[in-house]
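In practice, a research group might receive sequence data for several interacting partners and want a quick structural hypothesis before committing to experiments. The following worked case mirrors that situation: the sequences arrive first, and a predicted assembly follows.
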Amino acid sequence: MVEIIDGGVTTPQGFKAAGVHSGVKYRSLDLGVLYSEVPASAFVGYTSNNVKAAPVQVMMRENSPTLSAVVINSGNANALTGRRGIEDAIAMKQAVASELNLDPVQVGVMSTGLIGRFMDMHKIRYGISRACRELGSGRECDGLIAEAIMTTDTIKKECAGRVRLQDGTLVYIGGISKGSGMIAPHMKVLHGTTLSLITTDATLSPAFREKWQEILDDSMNMVSVDGDQSTNDTCILLANGKANGKCADDDPEFIEALRTVMTRIARTIAMDGEGATKLIEVQVTGADTKEDARKLVKTIINSPLVKSAIFGSDPNYGRIMMALGNSGCKFNLEDVRLTIKGGDMEVPILDSGAPIFQEERAVEVVRMAMDNKEVTILVDLAIGRESATGWGCDLTYDYVRINAEYAT
Amino acid sequence: MVEIIDGGVTTPQGFKAAGVHSGVKYRSLDLGVLYSEVPASAFVGYTSNNVKAAPVQVMMRENSPTLSAVVINSGNANALTGRRGIEDAIAMKQAVASELNLDPVQVGVMSTGLIGRFMDMHKIRYGISRACRELGSGRECDGLIAEAIMTTDTIKKECAGRVRLQDGTLVYIGGISKGSGMIAPHMKVLHGTTLSLITTDATLSPAFREKWQEILDDSMNMVSVDGDQSTNDTCILLANGKANGKCADDDPEFIEALRTVMTRIARTIAMDGEGATKLIEVQVTGADTKEDARKLVKTIINSPLVKSAIFGSDPNYGRIMMALGNSGCKFNLEDVRLTIKGGDMEVPILDSGAPIFQEERAVEVVRMAMDNKEVTILVDLAIGRESATGWGCDLTYDYVRINAEYAT
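A structural hypothesis for the assembly, expressed as tokens:
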């Protein structure tokens, strides 16, 4: 069983990190470097958006099976920047490589921020040089890199856990993430702008890739703030083997631990969605296929009407059923069970295709359930055995404010 | 050439209409009846949402090739109402039939409003009886039925035109529509909550159905306020032949006139989207397939990030390209041309895959173009010959306010 502990990316052995202010952003930290003392097996999930940012293009082309360092900047996404953007992404890798005495192919690169502006490489080079000198481990360094990758995020997203493998080895998993807008990742391993860095001192072989896609699909890829998939989504898992355990590819304890850490990070991203006041969890059960279950979760958490109803605790559950009808998944309306949970309340809504409540007073119960920081929507299609869970947030005045004045 | 005139659904010969207050809504008009003196050829497009409201289910099952009357109520969508909803929808048809001495199969029914509440049939019957007694033609009656079908709409949506057919006959087309939220219709003829009623005194045969699907696809089905397709979308075209012209199925003048009237109504729906301050028109040209062109239009007009950027006149055109990458359509980034138009300004944005503007002062030009009541986004993919145009609106504080307190 995984134990969640206070930690971050440098909690696993052999990892160091730094976060600095390079000047790309006006005041806050905007550049981070993560470093592993030994080359780590690298598993990378990239956005499936067909307009891919320069760093994504560069990383996909090189497709290195191991990485020793990753550089991340915020404030500028280096997306829609043509040939010059590609050159800048390569130059970022080279700058880190030369500071840390690495082969540039051993350096990963990620960017997040405004789309369509060229990078100020003078500032970036200065930041890289400083960050490489300030590398260290411990909670302070964890916090600096987690802060350096934030854009409209209001909270740092960190999580760590430890788990004992079947061979007795105690391994650590640490992770950070950023992301609060343009969030609907659909990351494919080798071929997710949430940027996430997951570190572990467990040992993994390249064959772990498939399992990792599955965990990504159940965690990061089930978060949606606005249904808009970024040009920059990237999630990197680095496993440096410093715990000296056996290969953990098939260790159920490890797999469950990684899933737990990544799911926690995914939930935090949704909870910190732009302008969000509530976390919405959608659980679909009894679906005919896994794809149906995921499709329905996404249709519900992306519906502006469902999201704004939850913001206002408006018991307009008809909108959830509208989303069901639009999802394209298989169901018989008469068999569908819809339940809304919030706080200690669990309110069944439907019976044989029609709402249980008709009277105003009964509807009030639904409003009370919705009036919580976390609202769970449960849909049991009762037609099959597949299920999926996903996370989103409410649509608020602040979402509009933040996004009506982002570039300015 | 069609001439747009001041008119509505009773402008074509032989149509009468009424709009009354039945009491389903607190104060405003909430029930309308449209009547044709002779049975009219009926073409109906229904929502493709798989949770279909009771009136949609009833109409689809009967699938009558001709209709003499249509009853519409607002305030209650009669959706998610199970068996009782079906009985109520049938009872609405029967009530109109008995008032007007018609076969119930000759009566169409549409509902719009809150989902998941049973109809108050006592009020509905009273409203039907009054509306049937008050049927009349002329601008006043046009206005009453147009008002009776409004929900969160802030303006009446009416349009009329007249056109001379190739055989010399002068025919009239009139239309009304409602819809400002839960708008992303994808109506299929016989198998589209915008409710629309289009009347004409031209003569049409059942074979016109295919052409009508095409016009629907280019007009109503290209409107999106929130990407949420309603359980109730229905668009009815009634052609009663009272102009005594030849069959207009293949008359290019008629087809163009109908397209013009329906496109004008579609634009009005987008312009009156919930909370909207701006109309967004997206024109895609040079697409590989028609489907690609439509898909891209929809991805752009549905993106909350694009919509809120336009609300704030925030020149964040990177978001339009993010939407392009997510649309799934075929393109070469280097060939894509993006132009933003507003007022008298037409601003080219991209050159060879990167934005033309980098400097703050140049970006101001984009902001000025966006600071208009109508903003047009032109995307030329330059890869094929297909095109599509669609309409949406900005995402504003008022959208959130309206939808956070709709049921209350």
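Before designing any experiment, note the following. Chain B touches chain A through 67 residues (CB under 8 Å). Residues 279-404 of chain B form a domain with the Ubiquitin-like (UB roll) fold (CATH 3.10.20.340).
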